[in-house]
Design goal:
Layout lengths: L2 E6 L6 E6 L4 H16 L4 E14 L2 E7 L2 E4 L4 E15 L4 E11 L9 E7 L7 E15 L3 E9 L2 E12 L10 E2 L1
Parallel strand pairs: 5-11, 5-12
Antiparallel strand pairs: 1-2, 3-4, 3-6, 6-9, 7-8, 7-10, 10-11
Amino acid sequence: MGVAKCWKFPASNNQIHADFDSRSPGKVFLLLNKIRDVLQCVAMTIQLAVLCDAATDYNGKLNILGTFDTIFAQQFPAAHPQCSVALRVAFTKMEEGNHTLKINFVDEDGQSIMPSVDIPVEVVLPGDATFISRNFVLNIQQLKFETAGLYAIEVAVDGQHEFSIPLAVKEMPKEGASQSGIQS
């Protein structure tokens, strides 16, 4: 007895349709080959996505200083003096063309805490390449937090949400309490 299956790969429009029958190993082998073929050309791979103290792109090398996921503040509203969002993304042949990378810093209610940033991206692979990696650095000055809570950096490509970088903003513990993270 066969069971109809459909796999859709979120980073692409590729779909695999198959009737799976556990009594037919040949069909399973063909299905696995189809999956392998699709995965080899799946679009865009997020290689790195971090919030850090500073980042630069120097001749295609992404330099990162001091990644973190928590900020402590003595009082609210609070302003963090300087931070950077560092991204490294690999694109495949099927991603060639013009795209828009959108970065949005949001609070736990999904409300923007700063204007979103749209970055135009032109993907062109040399003839012999199967992928190309690109670095993106967004430097942020005086990032304001009205309250303690959970925040996130939301990243979308061509309007489709791809991933989030979480950030916890906490009130500074009273003296003598243990803490980790950085202070604003």
